[in-house]
Amino acid sequence: MTKATKSEDGGMDQTRMISGAAGGALLLMGLRKRGVLGLGMAAVGGYLAYRAATGNDPVMAAVGGGGATTSKPIFVEHSVVIDKPTQAVYDYWRKLENLPQIMSHLESVTELDDKRSRWVAKAPLGTHVEWEAEIVNDKPGQRIGWHSLPGATVDNAGSVQFEELPNGGTRVHVALSYRPPAGPLGAAVAKLFGEEPSQQIAEDLQKFKAAFEGSDKN
Fold this sequence. Notes:
Blueprint: H1 6-32, H2 35-54, H3 58-63, E1 74-82, H4 86-94, E2 106-111, E3 116-122, E4 128-139, E5 143-148, E6 155-164, E7 170-179, H5 183-192, H6 197-213
Antiparallel strand pairs: 1-7, 2-3, 3-4, 4-5, 5-6, 6-7
């Protein structure tokens, strides 16, 4: 067995913090409710809290599996048409530090060099996760593709394509793939707290469209 790196240790600590916070909240909510729903919420909350406190996953141990890294990735995609020239839209996205103004789940993106960047994203219950990413596909005016680097709390990849339309506008197509910090259960908890990714991306792109079309950018 290989020894975990410092970045991997940080990722595991963040995952346990998020799992513990979500578990505690669910446990309290479940205890306040009655019936099957309350029992179910309390059970899930207790499970998350136990896993965060001990670092053990009794469910995955019982089925012979691992942790979050064994979960299936969640895929999200959405498109929007923006009445602005393609190059202008691409240029705005390519400056990665602009992304928190487009995607509401991002707190910040810091460009480390031409390809690498550090991302900080919001998580349930006021927590956050962070990781480093690398651009792996950059065609000016056409496409930007990236993936997270090893040790990321949220293993993810994504691309944005920019299609020039006959009327001078731009079709922006966003595709994201990620593994939630606490596996499939983490995705369910995120949805419970209003962090449903496909709806978020759709709303974010509509807000970006309204703001960008109303700006003085060419």
